[in-house]
Design a protein that fits this description.
Layout lengths: L19 H21 L8 E7 L8 E7 L37 H21 L10 H28 L1 H11 L23 H22 L5 H38 L13 H16 L8 H9 L7 H4 L9 E8 L2 E8 L4 H26 L34 H11 L3 H10 L30 E2 L1
Antiparallel strand pairs: 1-2, 1-5, 3-4
The structure holds fe (ii) ion (2 copies).
Length: 471
C-alpha cells in the first residue's frame, strides 16, 4: 500500500492505473501543470541539475531519496498516508461515526472551498519566489529554495488529486483555475493576501518559510484530523515535507543573525551595515511584518464558518485527537478581546466560533520557539539584543482589529501615533533598499555571501562545499 509506483506517468500510491478515467483526467492536467512550472516556476535554472529529495515512500523513516535532477524532470506525484481501518470522525457533530471515503453531499461546497483555498497557496508561493534564484547567497541556499519550490508544486498535486477524484467536473474546473490565478496580479490574484506579497529578497524568503509556511503547518494539522479521510491522509504526508520548509526559514534567519553578531563583535563601535551585515533591529522589523501578515491567514477571530467546518467534521483543531479529551467543543467558551468604542473589552465567545483564534494561538506559541532559538544565538555571542513577536493585534488586515491601530505590545494607539512610529516597527523603503542591495549571487561551491553565516551542516550528510546545484 505504501509503496510508490514510479513506473507510471504520474507517480502515486493510490493505485491510479485502476481508475482509467481519473488517470486520463490527471494526465491531461499534467502538461498544463508543466507549462505553468515553465512559465511561473523558478526562472532560468531549468537545465541545471539540483540535489533534490524525492519521496519514495510515505513511511516516516527512509521516505526520501536524494539525487541530482533537473527541476522540469522532477517526479511530482500523489502520495497519501495509508488508510487506518476503523477510523472515526474525531470531532464535531458526527463524532465517533465512521469517516467518509467519499464527499458527503451536504458538505460538498464547504469542503471544496477549503481544499481550493489550501491548494491556491501552493503554486502562489512558487510564483512569489521565482526570481530569488538569481541572488542566492550560496549553492546550499539555492538548492533549499528549489527543494521548497518543487515540494510546493507537489502539494498542488496533492490537492488537485482530491479535486479531480472527489469533485467531478467542478473539481476539474477548480484545478484549471489553480494554474490561472497569479500571485500579485491585480486582475487575477491568488486567494489569500499574504500569497500576493512579493518576496524579493532572501530575508523575506526566510521570514516567509519561517512564518507563512508555519501557517501552512497549522492548517494542515487541522485538516489532518478531518472526517473526510482522503483529505486527512493527504495532509499527513504533506506535513512530513513541510517540516523542511520551516527548517529553512528558522535556520536561515538564524544564520543572518549569526553573521550580524559576528560582525558586531568584530567591530563593536560600528554599525553592522557598514560591514555588510543586516542590523538586528532591521531583522526585527521584518519579523514584525511577516508575523502580522501570516497571523491574518487564520481569518476572523469570531467566525461562523470555522464553527460550521468544525461541526461538520471537516476541519478540526491542531492535534485534536492527541491534545483534547472533549471533542464537540460545545458548552465551552473562549475569551476574545473585542474592540469597542476605542478600548478593548474581554468577552466570552462560544468555543466553536473562536476556533480560528484557537489555531492562531497554537501558531503563535510555535513561532515563539523559533524566536527563542534566535535569541540563543544572540546570547551565545554575548550580545544583549533579543527578538520578540509582535502582539497578535499588531498591523492586522483581517479580523476584528482591522482598521484599528496597536503598538507591538497590542496597546491601542491612534492612527497618528501609528504613522509616526511605524518606521521603527516595519521595514521602511530605505530598509528594503539596503537589504536588496546585499542580494548578490554567490554560486561558487563552499562560498557564501557576507550577510549570512554558513550552515552548521549540509544536506543529507553532504558537506557545505558540495555541488548542490550544477551550474
Ligand atoms: Fe505547501
Ligand atoms: Fe511549505
Amino acid at each position: 500500500m505504501t509503496a510508490i509506483d514510479y513506473t507510471q506517468k504520474i507517480p502515486n500510491n493510490v493505485d491510479l492505473s485502476s481508475d482509467k478515467r481519473l488517470q486520463r483526467a490527471l494526465e491531461h492536467w499534467q502538461p498544463a501543470y508543466q507549462q505553468w512550472w515553465h512559465e511561473m516556476g523558478p526562472t532560468d535554472f531549468e537545465t541545471n541539475e539540483i540535489y533534490l529529495r524525492t519521496a519514495v515512500s510515505v513511511d516516516s523513516d527512509g521516505w526520501a531519496h536524494f539525487g541530482h535532477v533537473k527541476m522540469p524532470d522532477y517526479r511530482w506525484g500523489i502520495f497519501l498516508e495509508p488508510q487506518q481501518q476503523g477510523r472515526v470522525v474525531p470531532f464535531g457533530d458526527h463524532l465517533g461515526q465512521p469517516v467518509w471515503q467519499e464527499v458527503p453531499g451536504e458538505f460538498r461546497t464547504e469542503l471544496r472551498r477549503l481544499i481550493v483555498t489550501q491548494a491556491d497557496t501552493e503554486p502562489a508561493s512558487v510564483e512569489q519566489q521565482r526570481l530569488l534564484g538569481h541572488t542566492a547567497p550560496s549553492l546550499y541556499d539555492l538548492r533549499n529554495l528549489f527543494q521548497v519550490n518543487v515540494e510546493e508544486g507537489r502539494h498542488l498535486w496533492a490537492m488537485v488529486y482530491l479535486l479531480h477524484r472527489y469533485f467531478g467536473k467542478d473539481g476539474r474546473t477548480e484545478a484549471e483555475e489553480l494554474l490561472e490565478r497569479r500571485s500579485g496580479n491585480a486582475d487575477h490574484p491568488r486567494i489569500l493576501g499574504t500569497f500576493n506579497e512579493p518576496i524579493t529578497t532572501w530575508l523575506d524568503f526566510f521570514m516567509f518559510t519561517m512564518f507563512t509556511d508555519r501557517d501552512g503547518k497549522f492548517q494542515l494539522l487541522a485538516f489532518a484530523e478531518s472526517g473526510f479521510d482522503p483529505l486527512a491522509r493527504t495532509c499527513r504526508f504533506m506535513l512530513t515535507e513541510e517540516a523542511h520548509h520551516m527548517f529553512v526559514g528558522q535556520t536561515g534567519v538564524g544564520r543572518v543573525i549569526q553573521r550580524t553578531c559576528e560582525v558586531m563583535n568584530e567591530f563593536p563601535d560600528a554599525d553592522p551595515a557598514e560591514h555588510g551585515a543586516i542590523p538586528l533591529p532591521l531583522i526585527q522589523k521584518y519579523v514584525n511584518f511577516w508575523v502580522a501578515s501570516s497571523t491574518d491567514l487564520y481569518g476572523s477571530e469570531i467566525s461562523s464558518n470555522a464553527a460550521n467546518y468544525f461541526a461538520a467534521g471537516l476541519k478540526g483543531r491542531a492535534y485534536e485527537e492527541k491534545k483534547y479529551s472533549e471533542h464537540t467543543a460545545l458548552g465551552e467558551s473562549f475569551m476574545v478581546e473585542r474592540p469597542e468604542n476605542g478600548s478593548l473589552t474581554r468577552s466570552e465567545v462560544p468555543l466553536r466560533n473562536a476556533l480560528n483564534e484557537v489555531l492562531r494561538s497554537d501558531y503563535l506559541e510555535d513561532n515563539q520557539k523559533g524566536v527563542d532559538y534566535w535569541n540563543r544565538i544572540c546570547e551565545k555571542a554575548n550580545l544583549s539584543f533579543r527578538f520578540s513577536l509582535p502582539h497578535r493585534r499588531f498591523n492586522r488586515k483581517i479580523g476584528i482589529y482591522t482598521g484599528l491601530y496597536f503598538d507591538l505590545e497590542g496597546a491601542p494607539i491612534s492612527r497618528e501615533e501609528f504613522e509616526r512610529r511605524q518606521h521603527q516597527w516595519l521595514p521602511t523603503p530605505e530598509d528594503r533598499a539596503y537589504v536588496t542591495s546585499l542580494m548578490k549571487p554567490v554560486f561558487e561551491p563552499g562560498k557564501i555571501a557576507g550577510w549570512i553565516a554558513a550552515p552548521s551542516k549540509g544536506v543529507n550528510g553532504q558537506p557545505f562545499e558540495f555541488d548542490y546545484v550544477r551550474l
